[in-house]
Amino acid sequence: xxxxxxxxxxxxxxxxxxxxWSCIERPTRAEAExxxxxxxxxxTDIIRSLDRGGESGLWQRTGYLHLQLQVPLPVVExxxxxxxxxxxxxxxRPDALLTVHTGEVRSLVRLFQQCSSPxxxxxxxxxxxxxxxxxxxxxxxxxxxAAVTRLGQDIATLEDAATGEVAVAVVNTLVRLQRRTGEVxxxxxxxxxxxxxxxxxxxxPGMSGEWxxxxxxxxxxxxxxxxxxxxxxxxxxxxxxxxxxxxERRLRALIAVAALTLPxxxxxxxxxxxxxxxxxxxxxxxxxxxxxVGTVFLIALFVLRRQGIL
Length: 310
Fold this sequence. Notes:
By secondary structure, this protein is an alpha+beta fold. It folds into two domains: 243 residues, Beta Polymerase, domain 2 (2-Layer Sandwich); 60 residues, no CATH class. Strands 1-2-6-5-4-3 form a six-stranded mixed sheet, sandwiched between helices.
């Protein structure tokens, strides 16, 4: 079987100690059917493995295991894309491992490239296909860890910025980060159960408890995401309150300006439009009119202060 696979495309398969690892990026339907025939697998498992809406899970098939994981991607908020997770399928036979992926999990691609070195390949393949599977899954857990860390850093940055006038500008970013936190948490929520089930179906000789350790690490990531979600919620409450206060201050300022200027304008218009201005007969009518307008302004100012607007 290894010969059939490696002669098809040497760049996508490596072999050592009787174990073959094929790492296939975005296979076509024809390629998926050829792989299924070579590995004696159900082609549907390969064809559907790149479904972004699929669930993570572990299924026991005839002659192989099908492990499907939705892997969170470390997305920098400043250059975010619409993709938060990437599907990775691992199909495990006693003498081979087939990984099907989209190419977005760069750590997986790097691990496969490292296995082109005979020394690295011998070290990873020495424990058999289960040791290889453990190395690949550990790589995916580290990618999830990086994604959670990146989320925490973005939230911490906003926590420092979400004060004063900047508060209104970060609301949309906070909402987006809160949504990302929830999606990443849902993506890895089932991982601990899946990994502990691998302890039964694919035990690691010489690495007792490795699956449980990886599961515990993912549980720690889940708790970190819960804390991040709580921080986002708290920040949103604070930012919303700050935004409301800012708008209230601006509205009060607008009311104050209107309340001060409208009476003055009204008095000035009445005096100007009067057919026989009563103050024109006085020695200095302009000064009297100015004093009258000033008195109206002071009365309006006094009323606003009594009302607490100023």
